[in-house]
Amino acid sequence: MMKLKNLGILLVALTVLVSSCNNSGNKKAKDKKEVSIFYANWAESIAFTYLAKVALEANAYDVELTNLANGLIYGELSKDDSKGDVNLDAWLPNTHKAYWADYGDNLEILGESFSEGTSGLVVPAYVTINSIEELNANKDKFESKIIGVGGGAGIHGITLKAIDAYKLDFEQMTSSGPTMVASLEKAIKNKEWIVVTGWKPHFTWAENDLKYLEDPKGIYPKDACTIISRKGFAKDKPEAANFFRNFNLEEAQLYELMALIVEKGEEAGATEWYKTNKVLVDSWMK
After folding, report:
1. Distance (Å, rounded) from C-alpha 109 to C-alpha 170?
2. How far apart are alpha carbons 216 and 236 in whole angstroms?
3. Are the C-beta atoms of residues 195 and 123 closer than 8 Å to each other?
4. Where is the ABC-type glycine betaine transport system substrate-binding domain (predicted)?
5. With contact defined as beta carbons under 8 Å apart, do 131 and 214 qualify?
6. pLDDT for 18-67, tens place per residue?
Protein backbone atom coordinates (compact mmCIF):
# COMPACT_ATOMS: atom_id res chain seq x y z
CA MET A 1 0.00 0.00 0.00
CA MET A 2 2.85 2.32 0.89
CA LYS A 3 4.49 1.58 -2.46
CA LEU A 4 1.30 2.58 -4.31
CA LYS A 5 1.08 5.76 -2.25
CA ASN A 6 4.71 6.60 -3.00
CA LEU A 7 4.12 5.88 -6.70
CA GLY A 8 1.17 8.25 -6.66
CA ILE A 9 3.24 10.98 -5.07
CA LEU A 10 5.97 10.41 -7.67
CA LEU A 11 3.48 10.68 -10.56
CA VAL A 12 2.06 13.92 -9.18
CA ALA A 13 5.59 15.33 -8.79
CA LEU A 14 6.46 14.36 -12.35
CA THR A 15 3.26 15.96 -13.67
CA VAL A 16 4.04 19.20 -11.84
CA LEU A 17 7.62 19.11 -13.14
CA VAL A 18 6.55 18.53 -16.76
CA SER A 19 3.93 21.27 -16.50
CA SER A 20 6.49 23.64 -15.04
CA CYS A 21 8.96 22.85 -17.84
CA ASN A 22 6.29 23.38 -20.49
CA ASN A 23 5.26 26.71 -19.01
CA SER A 24 8.87 27.75 -18.75
CA GLY A 25 9.44 26.74 -22.37
CA ASN A 26 6.36 28.61 -23.54
CA LYS A 27 7.41 31.71 -21.62
CA LYS A 28 10.92 31.47 -23.04
CA ALA A 29 9.53 31.20 -26.61
CA LYS A 30 7.19 34.09 -25.93
CA ASP A 31 9.96 36.26 -24.49
CA LYS A 32 12.57 35.35 -27.12
CA LYS A 33 13.91 38.48 -28.81
CA GLU A 34 12.83 37.78 -32.38
CA VAL A 35 10.93 40.03 -34.78
CA SER A 36 9.66 39.20 -38.26
CA ILE A 37 9.04 42.17 -40.57
CA PHE A 38 7.04 42.05 -43.80
CA TYR A 39 7.82 44.82 -46.30
CA ALA A 40 6.92 45.87 -49.84
CA ASN A 41 9.44 46.71 -52.56
CA TRP A 42 8.98 50.49 -52.25
CA ALA A 43 11.88 52.84 -51.50
CA GLU A 44 10.48 54.15 -48.22
CA SER A 45 9.38 50.69 -47.09
CA ILE A 46 12.90 49.35 -47.66
CA ALA A 47 14.38 52.29 -45.74
CA PHE A 48 12.04 51.91 -42.74
CA THR A 49 12.51 48.16 -42.65
CA TYR A 50 16.29 48.04 -42.82
CA LEU A 51 16.68 50.81 -40.26
CA ALA A 52 14.42 48.83 -37.91
CA LYS A 53 16.42 45.68 -38.63
CA VAL A 54 19.84 47.11 -37.84
CA ALA A 55 18.56 48.96 -34.75
CA LEU A 56 16.84 45.89 -33.33
CA GLU A 57 19.82 43.66 -34.07
CA ALA A 58 22.07 46.16 -32.29
CA ASN A 59 19.80 45.64 -29.29
CA ALA A 60 20.15 41.83 -29.29
CA TYR A 61 17.15 40.92 -31.48
CA ASP A 62 17.09 38.37 -34.27
CA VAL A 63 15.24 39.98 -37.19
CA GLU A 64 13.77 38.20 -40.20
CA LEU A 65 12.68 40.15 -43.29
CA THR A 66 10.16 38.98 -45.89
CA ASN A 67 9.43 40.93 -49.08
CA LEU A 68 5.77 40.63 -50.15
CA ALA A 69 3.17 42.48 -52.22
CA ASN A 70 0.90 44.79 -50.23
CA GLY A 71 -2.15 42.56 -50.36
CA LEU A 72 -0.16 39.57 -49.14
CA ILE A 73 1.31 41.60 -46.28
CA TYR A 74 -2.14 42.43 -44.95
CA GLY A 75 -3.45 38.93 -45.52
CA GLU A 76 -0.50 37.16 -43.91
CA LEU A 77 -0.31 39.47 -40.89
CA SER A 78 -4.02 39.00 -40.22
CA LYS A 79 -3.75 35.20 -39.90
CA ASP A 80 -4.02 33.60 -36.46
CA ASP A 81 -0.81 31.69 -37.15
CA SER A 82 0.97 34.55 -38.91
CA LYS A 83 4.69 34.04 -39.46
CA GLY A 84 5.15 37.82 -39.48
CA ASP A 85 4.94 40.45 -36.76
CA VAL A 86 4.89 43.93 -38.30
CA ASN A 87 4.85 46.10 -41.41
CA LEU A 88 6.13 49.69 -41.28
CA ASP A 89 4.54 51.09 -44.44
CA ALA A 90 0.75 50.74 -44.42
CA TRP A 91 -0.70 53.83 -46.13
CA LEU A 92 -3.66 54.62 -43.93
CA PRO A 93 -6.39 55.67 -43.62
CA ASN A 94 -6.94 56.24 -47.35
CA THR A 95 -4.62 54.64 -49.91
CA HIS A 96 -4.83 51.18 -48.31
CA LYS A 97 -8.45 51.64 -47.24
CA ALA A 98 -9.61 48.53 -49.11
CA TYR A 99 -6.95 46.35 -47.49
CA TRP A 100 -7.86 47.67 -44.05
CA ALA A 101 -11.54 46.98 -44.69
CA ASP A 102 -10.70 43.36 -45.51
CA TYR A 103 -8.12 42.66 -42.79
CA GLY A 104 -8.10 45.47 -40.24
CA ASP A 105 -10.21 43.65 -37.64
CA ASN A 106 -7.34 41.19 -37.22
CA LEU A 107 -4.55 43.78 -37.13
CA GLU A 108 -3.32 46.44 -34.73
CA ILE A 109 -1.88 49.92 -35.31
CA LEU A 110 1.34 50.63 -33.41
CA GLY A 111 2.46 54.01 -34.72
CA GLU A 112 3.59 56.04 -37.73
CA SER A 113 6.95 55.66 -39.44
CA PHE A 114 6.26 58.84 -41.45
CA SER A 115 3.34 61.12 -40.69
CA GLU A 116 2.85 63.19 -43.85
CA GLY A 117 2.44 60.83 -46.78
CA THR A 118 1.12 62.29 -50.03
CA SER A 119 0.58 60.92 -53.51
CA GLY A 120 -0.47 62.16 -56.91
CA LEU A 121 0.56 62.67 -60.50
CA VAL A 122 4.10 64.02 -60.68
CA VAL A 123 5.96 65.83 -63.47
CA PRO A 124 9.41 67.43 -63.75
CA ALA A 125 9.37 71.08 -62.70
CA TYR A 126 10.18 72.24 -66.26
CA VAL A 127 6.83 70.88 -67.53
CA THR A 128 4.71 74.00 -68.04
CA ILE A 129 1.33 72.64 -66.96
CA ASN A 130 0.29 72.66 -63.30
CA SER A 131 -2.99 70.73 -63.06
CA ILE A 132 -4.35 67.30 -63.89
CA GLU A 133 -7.08 69.13 -65.80
CA GLU A 134 -4.44 70.27 -68.32
CA LEU A 135 -3.25 66.79 -69.24
CA ASN A 136 -5.66 66.07 -72.09
CA ALA A 137 -4.73 69.27 -73.91
CA ASN A 138 -1.10 68.14 -73.84
CA LYS A 139 -1.53 64.39 -74.26
CA ASP A 140 0.72 64.22 -77.33
CA LYS A 141 3.67 65.54 -75.31
CA PHE A 142 3.10 62.75 -72.78
CA GLU A 143 2.33 60.13 -75.46
CA SER A 144 -0.99 59.64 -73.60
CA LYS A 145 0.84 57.60 -70.93
CA ILE A 146 1.00 57.79 -67.17
CA ILE A 147 3.97 55.77 -65.93
CA GLY A 148 2.68 53.84 -62.92
CA VAL A 149 3.80 51.11 -60.56
CA GLY A 150 2.52 47.64 -59.69
CA GLY A 151 -1.17 46.80 -59.82
CA GLY A 152 -1.11 45.81 -56.14
CA ALA A 153 -0.11 49.33 -55.06
CA GLY A 154 -2.84 51.53 -53.65
CA ILE A 155 -1.78 54.42 -55.89
CA HIS A 156 -2.48 52.27 -58.96
CA GLY A 157 -6.17 51.98 -58.10
CA ILE A 158 -6.44 55.65 -57.15
CA THR A 159 -4.91 56.63 -60.49
CA LEU A 160 -7.54 54.58 -62.31
CA LYS A 161 -10.14 56.62 -60.41
CA ALA A 162 -8.36 59.84 -61.40
CA ILE A 163 -8.35 58.82 -65.08
CA ASP A 164 -12.10 58.27 -64.85
CA ALA A 165 -12.87 61.38 -62.76
CA TYR A 166 -10.92 63.72 -65.04
CA LYS A 167 -11.90 61.81 -68.21
CA LEU A 168 -8.25 61.53 -69.15
CA ASP A 169 -7.35 60.17 -72.55
CA PHE A 170 -4.38 58.44 -70.96
CA GLU A 171 -3.34 54.87 -70.20
CA GLN A 172 -1.63 53.98 -66.94
CA MET A 173 1.45 51.89 -67.74
CA THR A 174 2.07 49.30 -65.03
CA SER A 175 5.70 48.81 -64.04
CA SER A 176 7.73 48.61 -60.84
CA GLY A 177 8.94 51.37 -58.54
CA PRO A 178 12.53 51.19 -59.88
CA THR A 179 11.30 51.12 -63.49
CA MET A 180 9.12 54.18 -62.87
CA VAL A 181 12.10 56.05 -61.40
CA ALA A 182 14.36 55.01 -64.30
CA SER A 183 11.78 56.27 -66.81
CA LEU A 184 11.47 59.57 -64.93
CA GLU A 185 15.23 60.13 -64.73
CA LYS A 186 15.72 59.28 -68.41
CA ALA A 187 13.04 61.79 -69.40
CA ILE A 188 14.59 64.47 -67.17
CA LYS A 189 18.01 63.87 -68.69
CA ASN A 190 16.53 64.47 -72.15
CA LYS A 191 14.19 67.30 -70.99
CA GLU A 192 11.19 65.30 -72.16
CA TRP A 193 7.67 65.58 -70.80
CA ILE A 194 6.61 62.70 -68.55
CA VAL A 195 3.95 62.14 -65.92
CA VAL A 196 4.32 59.43 -63.28
CA THR A 197 2.43 58.20 -60.26
CA GLY A 198 4.48 59.58 -57.40
CA TRP A 199 4.42 59.87 -53.66
CA LYS A 200 6.17 61.36 -50.68
CA PRO A 201 8.27 60.08 -49.03
CA HIS A 202 10.46 58.99 -51.95
CA PHE A 203 14.16 59.65 -52.54
CA THR A 204 13.54 60.89 -56.08
CA TRP A 205 12.18 64.17 -54.64
CA ALA A 206 15.58 64.81 -53.09
CA GLU A 207 17.43 64.05 -56.32
CA ASN A 208 15.20 65.79 -58.89
CA ASP A 209 13.22 69.02 -59.26
CA LEU A 210 9.63 67.72 -59.35
CA LYS A 211 6.11 68.92 -58.71
CA TYR A 212 2.68 67.43 -58.13
CA LEU A 213 0.00 68.34 -60.64
CA GLU A 214 -2.82 70.10 -58.83
CA ASP A 215 -5.73 67.79 -58.05
CA PRO A 216 -8.83 70.02 -57.77
CA LYS A 217 -11.18 67.03 -57.46
CA GLY A 218 -9.24 65.72 -54.47
CA ILE A 219 -8.77 62.20 -55.82
CA TYR A 220 -5.34 61.66 -54.27
CA PRO A 221 -5.47 61.55 -50.45
CA LYS A 222 -3.08 62.31 -47.62
CA ASP A 223 -1.96 59.44 -45.42
CA ALA A 224 0.46 58.39 -42.73
CA CYS A 225 2.95 55.59 -43.32
CA THR A 226 1.49 53.50 -40.53
CA ILE A 227 3.12 50.69 -38.55
CA ILE A 228 0.75 47.74 -38.22
CA SER A 229 1.14 44.40 -36.49
CA ARG A 230 -0.53 41.06 -36.04
CA LYS A 231 -2.99 40.79 -33.18
CA GLY A 232 -1.23 40.11 -29.89
CA PHE A 233 2.24 41.29 -30.96
CA ALA A 234 2.36 44.12 -28.41
CA LYS A 235 1.36 41.72 -25.64
CA ASP A 236 3.86 39.05 -26.72
CA LYS A 237 6.80 41.40 -27.29
CA PRO A 238 6.19 44.66 -25.41
CA GLU A 239 9.75 46.01 -25.73
CA ALA A 240 9.78 45.58 -29.52
CA ALA A 241 6.25 46.98 -29.78
CA ASN A 242 7.37 50.05 -27.86
CA PHE A 243 10.22 50.55 -30.34
CA PHE A 244 7.73 50.55 -33.21
CA ARG A 245 5.37 52.90 -31.36
CA ASN A 246 8.18 55.45 -31.08
CA PHE A 247 9.65 54.87 -34.56
CA ASN A 248 9.13 58.04 -36.63
CA LEU A 249 11.20 59.89 -39.22
CA GLU A 250 10.93 63.42 -40.57
CA GLU A 251 11.23 64.03 -44.30
CA ALA A 252 14.84 65.26 -44.27
CA GLN A 253 15.93 62.33 -42.08
CA LEU A 254 14.21 59.82 -44.35
CA TYR A 255 15.73 61.24 -47.53
CA GLU A 256 19.18 61.13 -45.94
CA LEU A 257 18.59 57.48 -45.03
CA MET A 258 17.29 56.68 -48.52
CA ALA A 259 20.29 58.33 -50.17
CA LEU A 260 22.69 56.19 -48.13
CA ILE A 261 20.75 53.05 -49.06
CA VAL A 262 20.89 53.94 -52.75
CA GLU A 263 24.63 54.64 -52.47
CA LYS A 264 25.74 51.77 -50.23
CA GLY A 265 22.96 49.16 -50.32
CA GLU A 266 20.15 48.38 -47.90
CA GLU A 267 22.06 46.94 -44.94
CA ALA A 268 25.19 49.08 -45.18
CA GLY A 269 23.27 52.31 -45.79
CA ALA A 270 20.86 51.72 -42.92
CA THR A 271 23.73 50.73 -40.63
CA GLU A 272 25.65 53.93 -41.37
CA TRP A 273 22.56 56.09 -40.75
CA TYR A 274 21.84 54.21 -37.52
CA LYS A 275 25.38 54.71 -36.21
CA THR A 276 25.20 58.44 -36.95
CA ASN A 277 21.77 58.71 -35.29
CA LYS A 278 22.19 56.04 -32.63
CA VAL A 279 21.06 58.18 -29.69
CA LEU A 280 17.77 59.02 -31.43
CA VAL A 281 17.02 55.51 -32.68
CA ASP A 282 17.97 53.76 -29.45
CA SER A 283 15.70 56.17 -27.56
CA TRP A 284 12.78 54.51 -29.37
CA MET A 285 13.44 51.40 -27.30
CA LYS A 286 12.59 53.21 -24.07
Report:
1. 37
2. 46
3. yes
4. 33-275
5. yes
6. 444 444 444 444 456 999 999 998 889 999 999 999 999 999 999 999 99
Helices (H), 128-232: 154-165, 177-189, 204-207
φ/ψ (deg, to 5) at 106: -110, 20
Helix (H) or strand (E) holding 102: helix 97-103
Q: Do domains 34-116+223-283 and 118-221 have the same CATH topology?
A: yes
Return d(Cα 204, Cα 172) in angstroms, integer. 20
pLDDT at residue 155 greater than cutoff 90: no
* Angle, vertex CA 29, rays to CA 24 and CA 32, nearest 5: 115
**pLDDT score of 206:** 81
State the pLDDT at residue 167.
98
- For residue 205, the SS3 value is helix
pLDDT number for residue 149: 83
- Distance, in Å, from the CA atom of 122 to the CA atom of 213, rounded to the nearest integer, reads 6
Is the domain spanning 118-221 CATH 3.40.190.100? The answer is: yes
What contacts 226, CB < 8 A, 6 or more positions away? 89, 90, 91, 92, 109, 111, 112, 113
**Measured CA angle at 100 (ends 99, 102), to 5 deg:** 65
**Residue 92, pLDDT above cutoff 50:** yes
Exposed / middle / buried, residue 279 (Cβ in 10 Å: 0-12, 13-18, 19+)? exposed
Please tell me whether the overall predicted TM-score, pTM, comes out greater than 0.85 for this model: no
H/E run at residue 241: helix 238-246
Confidence of residue 77 (pLDDT cuts 50, 70, 90): very high
d(CA 35, CA 59): 12
Residues 11 and 252: their CA atoms lie apart, in Å, by 65
Q: What are the residue boundaries of the structural domains of the chain, listed by start?
A: 34-116+223-283, 118-221
